[in-house]
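By way of example, we now present a protein record of this kind:
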Amino acid sequence: MSLSEYFENVRGIGILGTADSEGKVDLAIYARPHVIEEDSVAFIMRDRLSHSNVTSNPHAAYLFIEEGEGYNGLRLYLTRTREETDQQKIKAMRREEQKGRERDSTETFLVYFKVDQARRLVGS
């Protein structure tokens, strides 16, 4: 199953791990990534710690745990490649379930990552 099919069809919870330029690690709950190509994903990020971290250190990891019993999911090892601030494009990329929800005025970014490696949650 491709990454785009996986994230379109599987529900669960995601955690994005980032680190600043000195290696201080942070974890944050994040929605499923937007799959741009099979080796490229994007996240909509607010101007908070995760965004600051990937600006100073482009490496990140995303852990996705599928709903249901057992330990199924994916680990994505990522490298930030670029970002966009076009708010209309960001608004258009939001998933249907997120459209229309109240948003604070914090600036948002569409941050693109190269998928360096994708591995199952458990095992190789």
Remarks:
- The helical segments are 3-9, 49-56, 87-93.
